[in-house]
Amino acid sequence: MYALCDVNSMYASCEKVFDPSIRNKPVVVLTNNDGCICAACHIAKRMGVGKKFVPYFQVKDQLAAVGAVIRSSNYELYADLSQRMMETCERFAPHIHIYSIDECFLYYGAGSQLDYVPAEGWQAHAAAIRRTVWKEVRLPIGVGVGLTPTLAKAANHAAKKIEGYRGVAVIDNEQARRQILKQMAVGDVWGIGRRLSARLCDIGIHTAWDLSRARPALMKKQFSVLVENTVHELNGSVRLSWDDVRAPKQQIYSTRSFGQRITDKESLRHALVTHSGIAAQKLRRQAGLASAMMVFASSSPHDQEAYYRGSVLHRFTTPTSDSRVMANAIASVMNKIHKEGVRFYRCGIGLVDLVSTKNYQGDLFNTSKDNAELMKCLDVINAKYGRNTVHLAGQGIEQKFAMKRAFLSPQYTTRLSDLPVFECD
User: Keyword Cell division on this protein (predicted)?
Assistant: First the structure.
């Protein structure tokens, strides 16, 4: 059996955890640089003001009219609360797979007989997970239980979207499977996107139940093996799996738009070095080395000035994961990236042609300049005390390019100065 635990409107729910004054108000969270709506609580959605990826400036007056609370994305807070939620859910099952920042699968085993069955039954067990997460983390979640990951996803959809389930749904028999799948549109099935959904509707498959009754071989022939596996999963046969260790990335990019336009070369270099440090840390985490680095920066296509984009592919003499080597490489290509008079809106770097440290064979005539111990020390300190506690001087001290977050809430759990204060009479 599988259980899927999914936080309701993760970002908006996190904003309400430490601020009781906004728990009964519509809350909307914005993307980087306060550009678009990326999350909205159920109150905002009911009011019709929480549509995703709508530019904030277009609905600013509408949000103000209904008294919506606006928040900038507080990634530090969301990541910490996500970790606490995962640790709480982990106590309820032998195995856990973290699927995203707001979702995790719990796996209880399968075979001729279930390896684990809760004494209280699946319905009560799922309710206990939901209740415990709310009590200990104050995040509202939906819990769906099913014989396969896809059925667990379907049960979770019912728990959150179908009336009568109230946050918990279990598909452990034919009656429950039929009841839930008949109420699900085919586009709500895990792995069935908008375009695929339209194609399935064209041939008369409108609901998840219709898809479950399709012939798997025909679905493979007309669509793909993914759809074939989905049909099997909807009928209780496990076809999807995940590796205990995710495959390493083949490319690592770090890019972001600026909070305000920048024109000087030094500020642009600081921003690029900052991005190289972020990407290098991710590269070291997967025990990798980069043979080349893409460096790029551009103006905005929406500005009145002519659009400009500069990019350079820099190849390292020997593959590297050292932030210092990357920073020196950025300094050497700045004249090819920066252009006088350009108001830069965005920049970034990409580490490409990656190799594993375990498989890389060194070059006798080109020795590596990496200092693995120094980089390890850097990563340990920043992991313990927060990103950029220790960083390269090349990143600058006063960062003019910092992301715009005008509605940022306190980082209640990761910054000492933002710790909640309680006063007792």
Answer: no
pLDDT bin (cut points 50, 70, 90) of residue 274 is very high
Query: Using CA atoms, how far apart are residues 387 and 390, in angstroms rounded to an integer?
Result: 8
Q: Which residue has the higher pLDDT, 407 or 116?
A: 407
Where are the domain boundaries for CATH 3.40.1170.60 in the chain? Answer: 8-74
Q: In CATH, which of 2.40.50.100, 3.30.1490.100, 3.40.630.30, 3.40.50.1970 is domain 252-395? A: 3.30.1490.100
Q: Model confidence over 217-233: pLDDT tens digits? A: 998 888 888 889 999 99
Sign of CA dihedral 77, 83, 85, 88: negative
- Average pLDDT value for residue range 56-70: 90
Q: Which positions ≥6 away from 26 have C-beta within 8 Å?
A: 40, 41, 43, 44, 47, 49, 50, 63, 66, 67, 68, 69
CATH 3.30.70.270 corresponds to the domain 77-234? yes
